[in-house]
């Protein structure tokens, strides 16, 4: 009986050994998971170090000028800007209001290829909006008023919905303007590769000039005066009741 009891004890000890090995393997896996989680937290912390956010209240303004590779989103409200950045300090985004003009500017020399800047602009009545040097301006709601002037140059883009009596738009040097909504009258100029997309802007009267590779697409119902020069192209819709066309030096005017 004693010998049997000793054998029984040995079996119990041998049976425990595999369980110990399993527990050790589980411990190793748990430690690896903890290391992975710590690395993930480290990457998140590094990302937060390179990102920033800032809100600034402003004086009243009715014009906006944006220069540099900045994404600007417009919304109605008390004058203010909310700046979000990744890879660049928000303090490097120059924001000032001078003589009723809000100027937002970032020097290209400060930006790296993966840097990002977004500025939400709260505004009252706007009369002029200008985008230059790669700026991108869009809106969350229609821009309303009597008159509005838009300008895009040097690869900048403006994309807005409007509800105005008169719209003036100018796109040059690869600048792009896309407008939807309504306007009684529109006066459009495109040049040097500038593009104007206005098929979805319902207007009665349109005055359009296209030069040196500029392209304008417009809708007019009552009157269309169009002048295309030196490779400029004007395309139109709306079956206007009256038209006055002039084409020079490979300029083209055609129905879209």
Write a structural description:
With 256 residues, the chain is of the alpha/beta class. The protein folds into three domains: 49 residues; 88 residues, Pectate Lyase C-like (3 Solenoid); 115 residues, Pectate Lyase C-like (3 Solenoid). The protein has a 20-stranded mixed sheet that branches. It is elongated, with a radius of gyration of 31 Å. The N terminus is likely disordered.
What's this model, at a glance?
The protein has 256 residues and is an alpha/beta fold.
**Helix/strand-derived class?**
alpha/beta
Shape: elongated
Order of helices and strands: HEEEEEEEEEEEEEEEEEEEE
Q: Strand portion, in percent?
A: over 45%
**For the report, how would you describe the main beta sheet?**
20 strands, mixed
Task: Give the C-alpha Rg.
Answer: 31 Å
The mean pLDDT is 87
The span between the termini is 105 Å
Number of strands: 20
Provide the CATH topology of the largest domain.
Pectate Lyase C-like
CATH class annotation of the largest domain: Mainly Beta
Helical residue percent? 10-25%
